[in-house]
Design goal:
Largest interface: A-B, 33 and 33 residues
Order of helices and strands of chain A: HEHHEEHHHHHHH
Number of domains of chain A: 2
Helix content of chain A: 55-70%
CATH topology of the largest domain in chain A: Four Helix Bundle (Hemerythrin (Met), subunit A)
Oligomer: homodimer
CATH superfamily of the largest domain in chain A: GntR ligand-binding domain-like
CATH architecture of the largest domain in chain A: Up-down Bundle
Chain lengths: 225, 225
DNA sequence: AATGTTATGTTTGGATCCAAAGTAGAGACC
DNA sequence: GGTCTCTACTTTGGATCCAAACATAACATT
């Protein structure tokens, strides 16, 4: 995949995510190619990719339109990630947590502890958490015994609101966000504990619940989200 | 999507599924376009689609190769379908089974009963079952409240061995297959029962187990599958 | 006036051309 | 003889051209 090609896909993904094209809006190949300053060819390739990712959908016989997402879709996408990561965690537990894998997970657990140790959250901590969170999840999913689960999660994560690292952190209320991350960290540690003891069902359920943290946990802390 | 374009994707999907291209084999755009009798353009579009579907993967910087699947991948794909359809079933149960939806499900239940009523299986029954089975599953998934779950299942089903209607029926042993379909029918009926009573967890688990029927249930009936 | 048909314009799909990037092979130098 | 480099060839990516399909609008006919 060349520079132009890849950048067309990701630039379009970004534009759609930002709402540059309204939901349901038809996207013409010529219009987009002119906006991005490339020819129609890479745009046509990108449209097919974005269709598969679920961001675009066919508008009848005539080209593509931006897919619109409801609140129910957001909730469903989060649940889908939950059951898939839960499946991955259960499989890891069932096949036994190797010493190497446990060590790797503890790296991210430790980084989380260090981040939260000082008792409050700074602006720049957000990226650090996002990074370690991603590593933690990817490590478990990547150890599930087959890339199929990870692929399914990756495809689901193309919906911009579904990805685990898309936790919206409100930098205006870092104290409340601190409590949220503290809970996430606890959930991470509980998952590792369950994995260590081969408790497949518990690991699965913990991961499923963990998926909701970006969604409804705000209510707990008075965020109304 | 034009005739040629769609047919290139599905023809390639078929060829790959049939093993016409060995696992890991590199696919050149020119070679494939000549084999299919089209120009490079629709092939390039198809490669992107098939990459997203997971049948092809990038071969370094140089084009695509046929993805190879292990037994673990097959098992995982079936489990992925299981947890996703389980999620759909649970959501249906949680939101309450409407009278209309129950009536529609009972149509497929009834067709299944009629098919199995005569006590044995004929060759042509296989297609009938495949059809009603597909409808049953699609009805539940389509009622989960958001297309997101169905999309995730559809993407997973692109792996040829993962789809629910890919139950390989051994026409040499229709008596053993009869027992398998009888069990599948019972599972369908139990799912509807659970949905009717709002038993979300039970509906979910029944669907998850139901996914395995094409995979390991052969062992029970002495098929060695 | 309404409906059906035709013609024109817009947009997508397929083919081909050109450029760029990568790979492999051969030759030269150490 | 081995390794490094340069060159030629293969293959992919991007741009453009042409044809086909679809939509829209206008005109004619009933």
């Amino acid at each position: 995949m060349s520079n132009t090609d890849k950048s067309v896909v990701s630039r379009l993904r970004k534009l759609i995510g930002e709402g540059a094209y309204g939901p349901g809006e038809r996207l013409g190949e010529v219009a987009v190619s002119e906006q991005l300053g490339v020819s129609r060819t890479p745009v046509r390739l990108a449209f097919r990719t974005l269709e598969q990712e679920g961001l675009l959908q066919r508008a009848g016989k005539r080209g593509f339109m931006v897919r619109e997402f409801t609140e129910a879709d957001v909730l469903c996408a989060v649940e889908v990630r939950g059951v898939l990561e839960g499946l991955a965690a259960r499989r890891v537990a069932e096949q036994g947590l190797s010493a190497a894998l446990e060590a790797e997970l503890l790296v991210w657990i430790q980084k989380g502890r260090e981040l939260l140790a000082k008792g409050y959250l700074e602006e720049r901590d957000v990226d650090v958490w996002s990074e370690l969170n991603r590593h933690f999840h990817e490590t478990i999913v990547g150890s599930a015994g087959s890339p199929v689960i990870g692929d399914a999660i990756a495809r689901n994560n193309h919906l911009p609101f579904a990805a685990a690292d898309s936790i919206v952190i409100d930098s205006e209320a870092l104290d409340r966000e601190y409590r949220k991350l503290q809970l996430a960290q606890t959930q991470h540690e509980l998952v590792v504990q369950a994995l260590r003891h081969g408790e497949g069902a518990r690991a699965e359920m913990l991961m499923r619940e963990h998926a909701f943290i970006g969604l409804r946990y705000g209510e707990l802390f008075g965020l109304g989200g």
